[in-house]
Amino acid sequence: MNTASTVPVTAVILVAAGSGQRLGYGMPKAKVPLGGDSILTHALRGVAAAGIARQICVALPPGDADLRAQCEGFLAELQTEHGRAAGAGDNVPLPEVTMVDGGASRADSVRAALAALLPGTQSVLVHDAARALAPEAVFHRVAASLAAGAVAVIPVMPVVDTVKTVEATHDGDAAIAPEVVTGTAPREILRAVQTPQGFELATLQRAHEAAAGFDAAQAAAVTDDAMLVELLGVPVHAVRGASQSLKITTPLDLILAEGLLEGPLGARWVEG
Ligand code: CTP
Ligand code: MG
Questions:
Q1: Residue among 114, 108, 23, 24 at smallest CA distance from 61
Q2: Is residue 163 in some structural domain?
Q3: 127, 128, 225: residue to mutate for ligand 1 pocket, most atoms within 8 A of CB
Q4: Least confident interval from 40-54, 151-165, 253-267
Q5: With a 6 A CB cut-off, is 153 part of the ligand 1 pocket?
Q6: Is residue 19 part of a domain?
Q7: Domain total for the chain?
Q8: What is the extent of the structural domain holding 120?
């Protein structure tokens, strides 16, 4: 546990280096338009609005000048706002924005960003740029749990569908159906997992160092950071996520995200 008498010095890693195959726009997903801006710009604004980061470290597709320019544009926007707030007497520190080249897998992108965190960082939140509309309240719940002593904390949602396990249909039954059910998971203890996921920095570093030695099959099975921390035997806590934190993965998700932006609460949701 953190000895949590003070708020830890916190960085937010924003992973935005994916190619967006399932969205099918023929461009990196971070670049795809959403409500007049890009997915990346919305995600950056959400992180900044939460106001918990001393540093925002963004993993981008290697060599993507356009997305780098978008980060610079966001930084300029932040500096303008910061100047205005300082004029009004508010003393909110301006986060440092760092850009790194992402890797071949999401975990590789996280590792590249971990290597670029400022000295003195104590806690880190890892967030998917694809969850561009995650509300500030979720960042705050995760950060509060870390400040209260959690070493690892994830935002979760109850599962609404019944979830079953299946296997391929046995020989001879293929004409009936492609798969056969092997069991039904108890829904009341299942949770769908979102980001931002929060960690004591030293623990997440240790977890990623261990994963660097995984073979291809093990590496492919890693879908979030908390999994790696679980493998160390460290307790992972769960706080309430938000439906607005949906991961924009398919064209339908993009339609939902556009709808959220047009809704009564507008561009930035306040509660989850
Ligand atoms: N990500 C990353 N580096 C990678 C792969 C993914 O930084 N090599 C990031 C994505 O940019 C995204 C988050 O991890 O913000 C979750 O990944 P996902 O939703 O799968 O995005 P993509 O990998 O871009 O999409 P797809 O799998 O459909 O290609
Ligand atoms: Mg992916």
A1: 108
A2: no
A3: 128
A4: 253-267
A5: no
A6: yes
A7: 1
A8: 7-158+193-269
**Where are any strands of DSSP class E within the chain?**
10-15, 33-34, 37-38, 55-60, 96-101, 123-128, 152-158, 164-168, 179-184, 191-193, 197-200, 237-240
Give the CATH number of the domain where residue 34 resides.
3.90.550.10
**Would you say residue 26 lies in a domain?**
yes
In the chain, pLDDT over 90 holds for what percent of residues? 85
Does residue 77 form part of some domain?
Answer: yes
Global pTM?
A: 0.94
Helix (H, G, I), strand (E, B), or coil: what is residue 135? coil
> Is the previous residue joined to 235 through a cis bond, with omega within 30 degrees of 0?
no
Q: CA 263, 264, 268, 270: dihedral to nearest 10 degrees?
A: -130
- From ligand 2's centre to the CA of 20, what distance in Å? 7
Residue among 19, 38, 100 whose CB has most ligand 1 atoms within 8 A, to mutate? 19
